[in-house]
Amino acid sequence: xxxxxxxxxxxxxxxxxxxxxxxxxxxxxxxxxxxxxxxxxxxxxxxxxxxxxxxxxxxxxxxxxxxxxxxxxxxxxxxxxxxxxxxxxxxxxxxxxxxxxxxxxxxxxxxx
Length: 112
Description:
By secondary structure, the chain is an all-alpha fold. The protein has helices at residues 2-18, 31-51, 54-65, 76-89, 95-111.
């Protein structure tokens, strides 16, 4: 019986290391690609907030982390992401996700 439990936990561990099966971001980004993807993730977050879907909110917030952006960028996509954040997301999140998103957005929001 112990070996079955061990095998089960080993299988779960391997699945955990493999990830949840979501779309993996590319390993390198041009600044424009990253800004575009970041803005798309912000749109997803705003849609999830509007639907009050906590699972989708968590996934979309995680998506923001996958796309590094330069706060000094003048990208229209980043300007749009900040506008979406200000009008549709800011103040509507709770807990750790709110802190995570606010931390990501603070340098971008401040630069605009």
